[in-house]
Write a structure and sequence with these properties.
With 98 residues, the protein is mainly α. 57% of the residues lie in helices and 0% in strands. It contains 6 helices and no strands. 0% of the residues are buried.
Amino acid sequence: MATLIGTNQTTIARVETGHTSPPLKLLLWYADYFDVSMDYIFCRTDKPQGKLYKSKPKAAVVKSKDMKQFIEMCFDPKSPMNGRLKQAILAMMEDEEK
């Protein structure tokens, strides 16, 4: 196994016995080689293909008043393009709140 991965047996043994954490490169190799997801490797799901998530970033939880103030500060009021972009972002926020 170590030869396939491109490492040595000592590294594999240290990971298997819990003396060290596996490097990301090793975990990615396992996922690719065995065609499983990182969720499966980390025991976050029993499904080898992984778990599908609905994205709900924590930024969406921020109070809408605070977020609107932040957006207002980020855009130059003299620029017509910035105004359109700002309005688009504010409209997306309002749609998300519904």
